[in-house]
Amino acid sequence: MLLLNTYLSVEAGITGSHIPIWKGFSEKLLKFISEENRNINWFLWGRMAEEKKQFIKYGKYYISRHPMMCSETYEDDFLRSSCFKDTMDIINWKGNPDVI
Question: Which residues pair with 64 in a beta bridge?
Fold first, then answer.
């Protein structure tokens, strides 16, 4: 499993400061991963992650609000997402040694 934040660094205290540096690399990486792993599950958490969907050609998507923005007000809230439940047969989310 790979959890990837497409903007791999940030200048302390300046949100989004490194987006221009990582943007092209991240988009190419997503295209490559999508082409090479057609049965991959994509967890797109947040508006910026969802915008990256255009670079992903293959796979299944789980889309929700960013985990930092949890609120019962929103129907697409992260805590309402079924992404963990739906992938428990392929990802050992709980760290149970008896599960693959």
Answer: 45
DSSP letter string over 14-62?
-TTTTHHHHHHHHHHHHHHHHHH-TT-EEEEESHHHHHGGGG--SSEEE
Q: How far apart are CA 47 and CA 44, in angstroms?
A: 8
The answer to whether the predicted template modeling score (pTM) of the entire model surpasses 0.85 is: no
What are the structure tokens assigned to 82, written together? 């079924």
Q: What residues does each domain of the chain span?
A: 39-92
pLDDT tens-digit map of 7-37: 878 888 888 888 899 999 999 999 999 999 9
